[in-house]
Amino acid sequence: MFGWLVWRDLILAWRRRADVLATLFFFVIVVSLFPLGIGPERETLKTIAPGVVWVAALLASMLSLGRMFGNDYQDGTLEQLLLTPQSTYLIVLGKTLAHWLVSELPLVIIAPVLGLQFGLSENSLAIVVVSLLLGTPVLSLVGAIGAALTLGLRAANVLVALLVLPLYIPVLIFGTGAVQASVGGTSPQAWLLLLAATVVLSLVFAPWATSAALKISVE
Amino acid sequence: MSSGRINWYKYAAPANFYPLAGKMIPWFALLTALLFIVGLYVGFFVAPTDFQQGEAYRIIFIHVPAAWMGMFLYVLMAIYAGIGWAFNARLASMMATAISTTGAIFTFISLVTGSLWGRPAWGVWWVWDARLTSTLILMFLYIGFISLQSSIDDPRRADRAGAVLALVGLINVPIIYFSVQWWNSLHQGATITAKSFKMAPSMLASMLILLAACWMYSIAVVLVRVRYIIREREHEAPWLAEAVALS
Amino acid sequence: MLEAINLSCVRGTRRLFKGLSFSANPGELIELRGENGSGKTSLLRILSGLAAPAEGEVRWQGKTIRSLGEEYSGAVAYLAHQNGVKDELTAIENLRIANGVAGHALHKPEAQIVLEQLGLSRQQNLPVRFLSAGQRRRLALARLLTSKTTLWLLDEVLTSLDDTAIKLSSRFIGDHLTKGGIAIIATHQDLNLAADRVQRINLSSGLSQ
Prior knowledge:
heterotrimer; A: mainly alpha; 8 helices; C: 6-stranded mixed beta sheet; 4-stranded antiparallel beta sheet; 10 strands; globular
């Protein structure tokens, strides 16, 4: 059942790939805006790179959250999913995984390319990838809560950002901390471990909150 | 329960709580006024001048109680919301909504007074220290809760969605605080602690009295607001017309 | 098997119905009548488990549906106002994925047979957004047919259907009842379905006949 659910979301995302690509391009554009706004000085760019990449990833994630449940809510398939004899926890997990694969993984893949624009070393680029790899699942898991709470509401996109961005702050701090450590020459290990802990915690608790939120919104 | 004791469950119904709240409000308002007068007197006339910061430090008598209230009220709001959700208790949910505004106001006051304190003390209007930053994030959490509830038309969905958000926020607060602490200790340059600040007993007394005043104020104002919410939500109920006429 | 006990429903600030009780056993049909907005959809949603009643409870085989959780979900199929089909998927994909997610995979040949029964053979590989309203409703019915559930909750099942499709649907519902299923249908029209027992519940007047 889990496989069918993820497969379903993947096919749907593929058939609407314009939406998915738009988010990716948004990420690229936002990251590129910063040197334009701040100036192309090597050292400045290296300093701001971790923050810029991570904040852009956060914002791009925000844009994609509406798609997690919104479409299914509109055509009635969401309630059909909730009516299957499967635990809502697993349904949420499946949708979150699909969301991560479609909306977050591309960011992780393209981030090192963007990191080059900021003059980051190979080591630092590797840490950018690892930190995003660890951190983006949290963005999907926690973002799902916001997406579920705001189903069908006016201005849901902005509202989701308002609700979820404060909750993203720890991930932002740990993720940028790891990259900054690498840029500064110290070990990013502690930060990466914190990120890993956050992932585990989110995996255990976030889908529960999302399930509850879905049931509330669908009622 | 014996017949001599009050049946508290009766007051879980908005219809019964409404007049009770109405009777309590004047008392709390009175206590608020008294405690504020005493607390401010102690803070401004009894507490000594700080030899490092001069008179300007006195703003902490408002800043610290406001900050504490912001935090306590968030926890209280989350608890009420949780009870309202778990037990399907409308009044508890209404209390959560009523508390949210007051909590947000206190947090805002705490941010503004924190900033005002910073200016004479450190020369800047804002510092990214762990406490102020955490307070800012708390402000965002309040704004999120209030925005979510105002965006949902169906009152019960608003109650329950708010409960989920408030509880998720509550669990996250320690994580956020911890991460901000770490972030802050890493970028030491911005940190200026008030460790050198010595507290005279009268200063502590003033803060505690003002904290009590804030509590009394909160109770009074939350009761007023919850009565307003009850009137709005139960406007079709027959008991309401009588009760409004009486109070 | 299905018992509704003292149900009451509130939408916003309006009370739609109160003190509603009824029961249904295998082979029985309940017709829900009432004006628009009288609570037919709300009642169906309460019976499906999606919504909680303001008061009262629903029991399945003696246990509350709340306590049964997923076990109850496995016994119920709900055809809502919306069809519950994805526009971007083809008819056959919709059917197979819906079954796969529900935990009982449907092989392609079986899916094709069902679609043929509903007159959707030619449309099976078309994305649903190219289908007419009637065809989409029939696809939703196909999903119902493959769901292997005992209790069918149908909200205005006959809307957008032409006469042939209506006859088809009536036959399917009739078969379902004969095999021991239960059907609760919200409808504006008379259904003329044979069943062991037919109850009519009119929500507008708050009466049950």
